[in-house]
Give the backbone structure.
Amino acid sequence: MKKSYQKAHQRKEGVNYKHDLGQHFLYDEALLSALVKSTGVTGQDKVLEIGPGSGMLTYQLCKEAAQVTAVEVDEDVLPFLRMKTQEFDNLTIVVGDIRKQPIRELCAPLGEDFYVIANIPYNITTPILDLLWESGLSIRQLSLMVQKEVADKLLALPGDSAYGLLSARCRYYAEPELEAVVPAEAFTPPPKVDSAFIHLRMRREPVAPVANEKLLMRMMRDGFNHRRKTLTNALKGTVDSEKLLAAMEAEGLKPTARAEELSVESWIALANACAV
């Protein structure tokens, strides 16, 4: 993607940007159009947009998609959102916090294999990812504008300094791909850090069969919550130590291995062995 960016507009539409909602809007139409096209959305696809704000991204989505459902928590931006998208009849606006909505009922009109595209407030990125990953909905792809640091974590591999629980969970549920880094000055108001637009292509099945997903997730959380400890120490109260050590040996892992050394496949193998 061509990396030239229009300087952000200052209060272009009279919107009162709310710091507590983490609002940072993009007004560069060429950039927004390019980002939407990068998602692969076509005229046959349906989209859930989270946090449409004043409607700049929504406008581009409505041009490309068959149907868009946009969920906005800030009632003060609704007049701007409705004005920007008034020419479209393929848009449904839902007012409320996505985290408090009955997610299955909300997404029912979108059917199966739909997209989620959003410029998510940075302070709720992880809760929204957890909500979508654990929803069981038939989502084809998440395409999200996130803080660059979060994108680094989502893209990280075992052994990388950024690799952690978010990285492992992401690789379990999806295949991540970086589309573009967007500088802070492209937003209104500009955040303190750069952002990144990232695609998470959702997996139809886990990378390997999973015997007990709850145990797997608990092991991951406990392992990364005590990342300075060896796995055997971090998971002492979680699983049987003898089973864990035997599974680690079978995976070719040293007894001193730590959470950040394990791929998703290794986590699954250990969890399956400990679930017996």
In short: The longest strand covers residues 139-147. The first helix runs from residue 29 to 39. The chain is about 35% helix and 20% strand. The two ends are 48 Å apart (CA to CA).
